[in-house]
Write a structure and sequence with these properties.
By secondary structure, the chain is of the alpha/beta class. The chain has helices spanning about 5-15, 20-30, 35-40, 60-75, 95-100, 125-140, 155-160, 175-180, 185-190, 200-215, 235-255, 255-285, 290-295, 305-310; strands at about 50-55, 80-85, 110-120, 145-150, 165-170, 190-195, 225. A seven-stranded parallel beta sheet has the order 3-2-4-1-5-6-7, with helices on both faces. The chain starts with 5 loop residues before the first helix and ends in a 5-residue tail after the last helix. The protein binds guanosine-5'-triphosphate and magnesium ion (MG).
């Protein structure tokens, strides 16, 4: 097997070598010691990267919208990277292919880097891998990174939760707003987009959203609701401007800094939890545990006391 040196690859990626960059992101995706070394190398090395998370129900038009937003960034001659998350099976490849086709127009533009990432390994792996990937892109000095996640589950909320501005994409008609609300997206959304507003029902969706927003409390920033027809490029500039307004708000209010801190703490907690879980599994599957288990089952020791023993903590 060929081994790649992360440090060397990073140096190459900083010289705009896209193949090296793709290899770095594969390292991140795989996890393990090389990925950890990469985190060490990129920690504190980031530039001013603005992270935009785009989420919403399958087929809402996220990729089409992202494609159009790429054009907005490019018209300002800035480089942009897109990470498309495929939360389904790593073997399906369906969504990935769709995204690639949707963003085909930018395939030959060297200022655009598009990458898909799939769920690999343990649960929560993606939530851990995404911030690592973003740090690599930041170290390589992309001013904008977009993350597209499909679906409205817990993992997606965690993944987009790492973004500076979170865009929730909906479609006209009843249902999307309710689903998003259930998934806890209402609390994290900074901006709502009703895409496919060439279809009937956009007004009803807006009303649903407004009602839900009225029931929530906001400190300062009230998420705007924008309507787009992504396939025709309608309303896209307004979405980009709203993202920029939110960015200004985050900076002027100091909330951006607070969020960034919270994100790193969340990440740390997630790492510690994953490690603790791993150790617990190890303890339980160790042959030495058999005798303790037998003692517990025969009534000799209760589960709390045994847990304390295992953790070597004082329960008194
Ligand atoms: N009528 C209409 N169709 C749209 C619009 N935007 C996107 N579509 C179509 O909707 C379909 C899905 O678009 P995508 O951009 O792939 O949606 P997505 O949310 O990225 O889909 P997944 O990643 O599979 O969840 C495609 O056939 C698009 O052409 C729109 O504004 N109006
Ligand atoms: Mg998509």
């Amino acid at each position: 097997m060929v081994t790649y040196d992360p440090e060397q690859l990073l140096a190459q990626a900083k010289e705009s070598n896209r193949v090296a960059l793709a290899k770095l992101l594969s390292i991140v995706e795989r996890g393990g010691p090389q990925a950890r070394e990469l985190v060490k190398l990129t920690w504190g090395q980031g530039g001013e990267t603005y992270l935009v998370g785009i989420t919403g129900a399958p087929g809402a038009g996220k990729s089409t919208l992202t494609d159009r937003l790429i054009s907005q960034v490019r018209s300002r001659t800035l480089e942009v990277a897109v990470i498309a998350i495929d939360p389904t099976s790593p073997f399906s490849g369906g969504a990935i292919l769709g995204d690639r086709v949707r963003m085909q127009e930018h395939a030959t533009d060297s200022g655009v880097f598009i990458r898909s990432m799939a769920t690999r390994g343990h649960l929560g792996g993606l939530a851990l891998a995404v911030p690592d990937a973003v740090r690599v892109l930041s170290a390589v000095r992309f001013p904008y990174v977009f993350i597209e996640t499909v679906g409205v589950g817990q993992v997606e909320v965690e993944v987009v939760g790492a973004a500076d501005t979170i865009v929730v994409v909906m479609t006209p008609g009843w249902g999307d707003a309710v689903q998003a609300n259930k998934a806890g997206l209402m609390e994290v959304a900074d901006l709502f987009v009703i895409n496919k507003s060439d279809r009937a029902g956009a007004r009803e969706t807006r009303r649903d959203l407004e009602l839900m927003l009225e029931m929530s409390t906001f400190e300062g920033w009230v998420p705007p609701i924008l309507e787009t027809i992504a396939t025709e490029g309608k309303g896209i500039q307004e979405v980009f401007e709203a993202i920029e307004s939110h960015r200004e708000y985050l900076e002027s209010s100091g909330l951006g800094q607070k969020r960034r801190e919270k994100r790193v703490l969340d990440e740390l907690t997630r790492i510690v939890r994953a490690e603790v879980n791993r150790r617990v599994d190890q303890l339980i599957s160790d042959p030495s545990f058999e005798a303790k288990k037998a003692e517990m089952m025969s009534g000799g020791i209760d589960p709390y006391s045994l847990a304390s023993d295992l953790l070597e903590i004082d329960s008194a």
